Sequence to fold (242 residues):
Amino acid sequence: MRVLILGGTAEARSLAAALVSEGHDVTSSLAGRVSRPRLPVGRVRIGGFGGSAGLARYLAEHRVERLVDATHPFATTMTRHAVEAAAATGVPALRLARPGWSGHPDVGAWHWVDGYAAARVAAERLGSRPLLTTGRQTLDHFRPWADRFVLVRLVEPLEEPAPTSWTILRDRGPFSVEAEVTLMREHAVDVLLTKDSGGAYTSAKLDAARELGVPVVVVRRPALPSGLREVADVAAVADWLR
Fold:
């Protein structure tokens, strides 16, 4: 089949490799927000489509037979565009997303919130030296902390200068529990803010927080658009194509 994968995640790369090995005609689309992305096998396009209408045009012009949205669990705009484009063209669509952290043994002790503004408020009640790992595009929600210490970890550089009281770390997982414990101790972190990205690449911070007794604030995943089926592994996508 001719398959378009909306990618940029480890799951999307694994999917592309599996589908190419099965003989499918695969194109992976990356948003272009990462300067040196890890490229999947198969054809790759980089850049936006111009909204759901642009994606629908692409699906029609390239005679795409199946669409798989394997973007980040918090890439809500792209997921919405995928649903709208699939509906407009009649191309079957499926969502591939890594499982969240709801099965973690400490899940009941975390402070779950809906959205980044609520995460900021919750963190203010719990500590004064946060480790912030919610991503570069969420930082505007935390600008009210411009006069306090914040340890921010990012993959990509900031587009605008950070407040002078913030410490910016650029690093990419996977991380070990030992390294996360050392990081939190060195910076006297007393509250962790993250989002329910799931996966093992960045989960060590959760175990480190437990070891140090640091409270954790977690932003819940956004709800899926109506009518979009979600699966958790590559094998389920391959079965769907068959």
About this structure: The first helix runs from residue 10 to 21. The chain has a mean pLDDT of 94. The domain at 107-219 is CATH 3.40.50.720 (Rossmann fold). The chain has seven helices and twelve strands.
